[in-house]
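Study this pair:
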Amino acid sequence: MRKLLFAAFVCCAALIAGPAFGKDGYNLTLSTGLRSDEFDWNIAGDSSGANPNVLSELSWRELDIYEIRGKLAVETNRVYIRGSLAYGLIYNGVNQDSDYNGDNRTLEFSRSNNRADDGSVWDISGGVGYVFRLTPSSRAALDVIPLAGFSYHRQNLTITDGFQTIPATGPFGGLNSTYEARWTGPWAGVDLIYRFDRLTLSGTFEYHVASYLAEADWNLRTDFAHPKSFEHTANGTGVVVSLGGDYAISKEWAVGGSFDYQDWRAEDGTDRTFFSDGSIAETKLNEVNWTSEALMVDVRYSF
């Protein structure tokens, strides 16, 4: 929360922003910046969530990502449509893989600490709403825009450069495992856009309901099938918040920036493992957690 408040202060204080819509029109915004993600999941020993209640836990931390994004917003007759597409390259990160024999993460018998400095992320979203425009003066306006939409988010995560910590046997070669996660579903939210002359400050809040699906290839496990060693399915939710603004340097062009925060959770799902002999085993997927923060520089063209 402190990071969110600090970034919001930076966006609002350091950036002077420009108008989004004073009348019907189109806005195309191109953005680039840095993003940081955290991702983890854990499974139980059986399908009832016991023996033990946490058998294996994987976490990806400090995932540094270079991201680019395009956004198109359209307003016509107070109907507001916006869509966005973002792609990011992971260039830094770490992974931990822990296994336990006791409940509540006790009796840890295996731990590896590995690299996770490769992979990619995707975010695709679209929504439609209606503009309620408040005009407290001839120079200022506040748009309140309830929206509903649909989104797709994907993380292509990797595990390389294996290092065994428990037992402390050190580096091991050949590790090149992958975990591909997808969050898909509808959302509802609201956009707030405040304009004062060339200055615009904007905020977005979205609440998502998501279907979670992930597939993994654990390349060093000869007892697992390849290229799909196991899959995860669950239902989840997400919260997306964005704050920012831009400054109109001409009638068509504006520059500015934004801060984006995402918090996603899925729980009570299924872990389905595929073995090399053709057999399949299921256990409980306890939870999946994903958070993301991004600070972007924006260039907007209105037409």
About this structure: The chain has a mean pLDDT of 91.
